[in-house]
């Protein structure tokens, strides 16, 4: 009897474990012509985790995020979202589930903040305009920019633009947020306000993959740091382990240069 119970409890643990994995990347290979950029990436992300991806420039970090969001095709391996191969998803359907924020804000310059926010939900999700406006107001308050609802992107600072870009991505109620160096185009004094919004989001339980070299953010917020170099995951682990006691020479060398 007790054995049986143990077996059942083991099984539910297993079920738990697999249900929790929201993204699974297996042996991902990406080439641009003859250049192999991703050489067999393996990575699993649990629901609610914040993963910080670090690594040398040109190592394939952006390409990896772009593959997850179907902005790039790949030549080998698989990416699963909730256990389903992303090949099976329609690209628009996938992108309602995965939000992305880039280094260069990518706001539509000819639209004000409100219209930037409501465009995708009204077009792609067919959300009624009034509902979208209400949602936009909630999210703009959340990023501290409700007073900028009528402003145009050129009237905003870089930090404000990036906070709008985050609010815009959240309009679709994504389950996962991808950030590709969201603060590297910002003046240093504007970095904090964007990181604060991201910290809030992480604490609210969002699943996040963040490419950044803001190691303070990584230390405070990341559940895991993943070091990508030369197209593979060279090393990964909790921040305290990776930052204090990196095992691989390449990780050590990289951290020595950026810290
Ligand atoms: P990271 O984000 O880590 O700096 P990237 O993923 O941007 O690295 O780039 C990895 C490699 O792929 C680099 O050598 C880069 O030049 C190359 N690359 C990226 N995008 C393209 C593209 N569209 N066409 C050809 N090569 C590309
Ligand atoms: Mg990049």
TrEMBL record:
GO molecular-function term, one example from the UniProt record: ATP hydrolysis activity
Membrane among keywords: yes
Subcellular location: Cell membrane
SMART domains: AAA
InterPro entries xref list: AAA+_ATPase (IPR003593), ABC_ATPase_HisP-typ (IPR030679), ABC_transporter-like_ATP-bd (IPR003439), ABC_transporter-like_CS (IPR017871), MetN_ABC_transporter-like (IPR050086), P-loop_NTPase (IPR027417)
Top-level division of the source organism's lineage: Bacteria
SUPFAM superfamilies documented for this protein: P-loop containing nucleoside triphosphate hydrolases
Domain ABC transporter, chain residue ranges per copy: 23-255
Gene3D superfamilies: P-loop containing nucleotide triphosphate hydrolases (3.40.50.300)
Family assignment from sequence similarity: Belongs to the ABC transporter superfamily.
Full protein name: Amino acid ABC transporter ATP-binding protein, PAAT family
Lineage: Bacteria, Thermotogati, Thermotogota, Thermotogae, Thermotogales
